[in-house]
Write a structure and sequence with these properties.
The protein is mostly helical. It is built from twelve helices and no strands. Helix 1 runs parallel beside helix 9, helix 2 runs antiparallel to helix 9 and helix 3 packs antiparallel against helix 4.
Length: about 230
């Protein structure tokens, strides 16, 4: 129970964001013609905040499977960056590993990248419950938003910017709490460089590839120096 309590209190800052953002998603999804079951199912089985926002447009626009796959890879490719640093942490997580991999969002990563104050016996349970609590907040927000959208009139103009605001807040939180700023600086510099070279319409994929390459080389160099 102590592990559950610690995980819950650790996840409270994420709850404040996820419930609000989930409500925004639920409202937009309902306004697009998809009810509460869709909101719940997408948040349980997809659980990718920004991709779920984008997914509304894909659903309403009748996007093909190929378009959906390419868009999903582009939007969620950032997961490659921080997942590299979690390989060692998740290596021996046993039965928790499948769910921990599935539930590793930006905000969950920001909470778990600095979790070395737990023993080997409790760390995996702690990571599991932090991940689980965070997803529960997102699911709850999505369902609440869908229900609100059914009974109250809402203008959804500008709601999609909420995900951008969340990413900025997550970046600031990780910068403050983490002593290692190499991943953050790599992301900023690589993105800025690719934006200048490729332009605003084409910089995303090159930036992601460059960040992945740099972080992979950094990780190999650190392993070689041990």
């Amino acid at each position: 129970m102590e592990v559950v309590r610690k995980a819950f209190f650790r996840s409270l800052p994420v709850m404040a964001g996820y419930v609000v953002l989930g409500i925004g998603f639920g409202i937009m999804l309902h306004n697009a013609g998809y009810g509460v079951l869709w909101a719940a199912a997408m948040s349980v089985f997809i659980y990718a905040g920004s991709m779920q926002y984008v997914g509304i447009g894909l659903l309403t626009g009748g996007a093909s499977v190929i378009t959906t796959i390419i868009t999903t890879v582009m939007v969620n490719a950032r997961h490659l960056f921080y997942s590299i640093s979690m390989i060692d942490k998740y290596k021996n997580t046993g039965k928790y590993k499948p769910y921990l991999i599935f539930a590793l969002t930006d905000e969950t990563y920001s909470l778990l990248c600095e979790d070395d104050d737990h023993t080997e016996e409790t760390i995996n349970r702690y990571r599991f419950f932090v991940s689980l609590f965070n997803q529960c907040y997102w699911v709850a927000g999505s369902v609440i938003g869908s229900l609100l959208g059914a009974v109250l009139p809402f203008s959804t103009k500008g709601i999609e910017f909420s995900m951008t605001a969340l990413f900025i807040a997550s970046f600031a939180e990780q910068w403050i709490t983490s002593k290692d700023h190499i991943p953050a600086l790599t992301g900023l510099l690589s993105t800025g460089l690719c934006l200048i070279v490729f332009g605003a319409e084409r910089f995303l994929i090159p930036a992601m590839l460059l960040i992945t390459l740099v972080l992979t080389l950094v990780r190999k160099r650190e392993e070689g120096s041990r």
